[in-house]
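Data deposition worksheet. Section B asks for the primary sequence of the deposited chain exactly as it was used as input, without tags or linkers unless they were present during the calculation. Section C holds the resulting structure in token form. Section D is free text for depositor observations; keep each observation to a single sentence. Incomplete worksheets are returned to the depositor.
Section A, Depositor: J.P.
Section B:
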Amino acid sequence: MTPRPELPSGRIRLEEPPRLPTAEGAGGVAASAIPMLGSLGSVVLVASLGGGSSEVRVVAAGLFLVTTVAYLGFQLDRQRGQRRRQLTGARRAYLRHLAGVRAAVREAAATQRQALGWLHPEPAALPSVAADGTRVWERGPEDPAFLHVRYGVCAQSLSVELAAPADLDADDADPAAVSAVRRLLDTHPVQPDLPAAVDLRRFHRIALAGGPGAGRALARSLVCSAATFHSPEHLTVAVLATDDTLEEWEWVKWLPHAQAAQRSDAVGPVRLIGSAATALTDLLPTTGHVLLVVDGPASAHGVVPPDGRPGVTVVEVGAPDEPPAAGELRLELLPGEDSEPGVPVRAVRLRAEPVTAHADRCDPATAEAVARRLLPRQAATSAPDAAPATPAGLPELLGVDGMTAFDPGSGWRPRPPRDRLRVPVGTGSAGVVHLDLKESAQGGMGPHGLVVGATGSGKSEFLRTLVLGLAMTHPPDQLNLVLVDFKGGATFAGMADLPHVSAVITNLAGELALVDRMHDALAGEMVRRQEALRSAGNLSSVRDYEHARTGGADLPPVPSLLIVVDEFSELLSTKPELTDLFVAIGRLGRSLGLHLLLASQRLEEGRLRGLDAHLSYRVGLRTFSAQESRTVLGVPDAHALPSVPGLGYLKPDPTTLTRFQAAYVSGPSGQPAVRRRGARRAPLVLPFVAREVRAPVTAGPAAGRAAVEPPASDQASVLELAVARMRGHGPPAHQIWLPPLDRPEPLGRLLPAARGPLRVPVGTLDRPREQRRDPLVLDLTGAGGHVAVVGGPRSGKSTLLRTIVAAAALAGSPRETQWYVLDLGGGGFGDLADLPHVSGVAGRADRDVVRRVVAEVQGIADRREAGDTADGRGDVFLCVDGWSALRAEHDDLEPALQQLAQRGLGLGVHLVVSSARWSDFRAALRDQLGTRLELRLGDPVDSEVDRRTAATVPTGRPGRGLAPGPLHFLAALPPPPEQLIAAAREAWPGLEAPPVRLLPATVGLAAVRRQAGPDAPGLLLGLDEAQLAPVVLDTDAEPHLLVFGDGRSGKSALLRTYLHEVARTRTARQAQVVVVDYRRSLLGEVPDERLLHYLTSADQARPALDELASYLRTRLPGPDVTPDQLRRRSWWTGAEVFVVVDDYDLVATPQGSPVATLQPLLTQAGDVGLHLVVARRSGGAARALYEPVIQTLRDLAMPGVLLSGNREEGPLIGTVRPAPSVPGRGQLVTRDRGREVFQVAWSPDSATR
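Section C:
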């Protein structure tokens, strides 16, 4: 569409004309001659005084005189020539300036003429404008030229102002320049023969005075000009004429502006043409502007009062000779020769200078041509406020005699190539309107198109009509459908059962993740079709493919695929990246048999960027704005359509615009009324004239009996009946869209995909690009043997872990897989403790069991690493549900599990862990987790699979997640625990996984001694958690022991066991015991023959320990001790001394500690035979670590035991913190073995014994 030329404006300023140069005069010459005369006088004087001949002096004087005169003449001539050259140069420069101004003025005048000619074309050009359609009805109330109508041409001022120089009349101005300026100012300010227009809103009466022929020609021009550029919504044309002159206005019947909205006759809306003013008054609208033409003696007073009526302009042909009143314009057609510009006319207004012009002429043939070309742009049966005529039914357009008689086999019969993908969609002025989806090379309008219609315009109904019409005329092996509705899905409701439907994708606005899935499905369909062409022999198009099939090639059908996308504009606003997909379909659709139809209520500027070139046909229903109509159709016509659903324009190519009324398929199939069988009526032909036409009276088929049957109110719609008739017929369409992953599959349905106990299905994997779903099978045989499940709260982590356990249990026997479970999350594994494959389940409250389970798995790995592979077990799985809880509550276990992950796969030991974030796993562990399943995360940015895709995982859908690819999956539902356990026991009768051996809460010292055997070296303190083996303390290598524990944690029991073991391993001659026991809890535990001192107070302890220290110092090796004596420690004889201090927090006071006297000997304990055991409560132990005796023991890295205590005390021995535990349960920390959890061996106290 050519843009509207802009009317030039602004100001062109002329420069001042040059001034005449000032003459120098004789004074200048005299001033130059004075020095010469002085020199001459001097020469004469010298000559007269000197000697020599007088003749010589006369000659010399004469020469001087001649030279002086000549010089004076030369000077005078030079000054005159210089002034003349100066004037000529200034004049030429100014004339060049005027030439530039003249060129600019001429250019502005030409642009002004072009702009006015484009705005108000001459009557002879109006048929072409109407036929082209791009400018028809372009002017709305917002247009500055609204209701401006051309009446002729006249001289008008130049739209650009020429600013004359200020002192043009100055005396010293160059006359030639001034003359040139005046000629320019006199010639160009007024331009001849420019289009002149009248604003109809300013005048209620335009009187055409003069001859009736010239008046009618001018009136026809006014009407045609107004009707061409203004829609019937804004302008109504009416004619009031006498019976004699009515024939002159017969052509007006074709104008859509001259049709009554309230009344119809036998041939349509009544034409606003007549000779009765009263009848015409009743038909005039109350909105818009009315242009009423009055021809002949008929008076408009019956329609319009003398002083006018708002919104009505009367054009009176042959007006009487009277001066104009207020609000009137009198166009006087002057007598004279009818020249080329037109009949001379003078425009006269009240209190205004008359304007002389040349009136336009429009003959009846030209006027009728304009009217006929405007008629197809108006609804054939109704005006905006009139009741719309019943749209044609689709069965009627298809030639089907009622939907109950529709036979898919008959409708799908082979069609000629011309009718392939060609379907009727409605009716127009020329009959049935068809939409042909074939590409233009095959005689069609496609392959791609655009539909735009505002709310209530019938857009959805048009799409339903198109889709249903194609389905009723093409079998599923020739045409498939993809129906996409970005909003709720009402547009294509009820069409999913059509055998042609490959996909119905609705409600994308409510679940944007489906938009990406749709993108993958459509892109995958393009790839599938390309592969089909390649496998058929590298064919170039689906058309060649079909020719090969019809030629006998054994090829599956590849039907054409129509992709209808409703509300695509909002879809692209939400997902702009879909534009690339639509452009790809537009580019490759011709060869792949893809047809794209985009529909929307609104069309934003620039939304079609990149797509516009691929959209061949356009359908414009009523639009929200004229600009939207221009964007779709190139003309504003769709905006001017009345509010009749289904009324619109079809633009199959750049030069054709067809108005149509779409068929209606959503109403009862009895609408329109179904003619009773046997009733026949011949077509009735009536004349279409300006006057009202009455319908002839014809006899009915039977008196008193109607020829039609009223529709039943409960009758099914055409759409419903058509879908029901076609359901189940023909081969089903290839499904490119499977339902979204909304309902989880039961695990039992997926088990056939299992390939042994280490290749198990746990869910459904969505592959929209491949248009299929696959079981999500975990391969735990190789590098993927460790599994990580990560997801936010309530995302289904625990359920997915249960699914993995259940799948392994149903796919393999308890001899092939055993499971150890740390249930630190939602507590969902308690019901699986009885599963034959589960060795043990430890809950969050079972702190000791948690450690024992880890120790059990570590022991299995250790034994296998040591070469003991014949343990009767298969692959061992340690499942940790809640890794973050394990780190928070069992941080000491994390290094062990990380080490287990690094070496476990080669030993048949697997980790299956879950957490809320990937960052909960340290990098060293995360690298070992080869199988990763990611559920919905709290923040998609944390995704390790794909951040962009992670954002599309829906919330509130437990089990939905991402697998590497990225691919969406939905976890399967595990069977109920009781069913799972029963199925496993039935499948593997008599087989059970070895249960977890738990560390007992109480273990007797005698039992430990029996397990260790009579030759056990060292002191037996209890049973360790890892192997349930005796814990042995080697006092020769580690002579001292430090014990921390809260009250009733087992400190005294440990010391008692220690003393009993000293007594077991050493005789009284080999060991003597000193007990410092302020609370007397160890009273009687040491036999008298072994007891050196039993000290219960500081007064007793200080001298006794000082004496002991003095004695032990005597054992220090002197300089005479040989190396051999040092090795055998034979330089002294006697018993080793075991100093056991209980409740050291009572012994070490601010006044000092009696035990401190032994501190210097601690470093040489092995040389002097000293063993120190210090036990104190753990409360406040962090401060006591710097007490000299305890600090020395820690510096020597002596073994320590941490019984039950508060973790808040911090690390007490090495990096190990105390932890709450049952009495007697402790942590032994040594240099060689690190940290060991053990149960102190219980031995009864002396009172119990």
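Section D:
The chain has 33 helices and 47 strands.
The longest strand covers residues 148-157.
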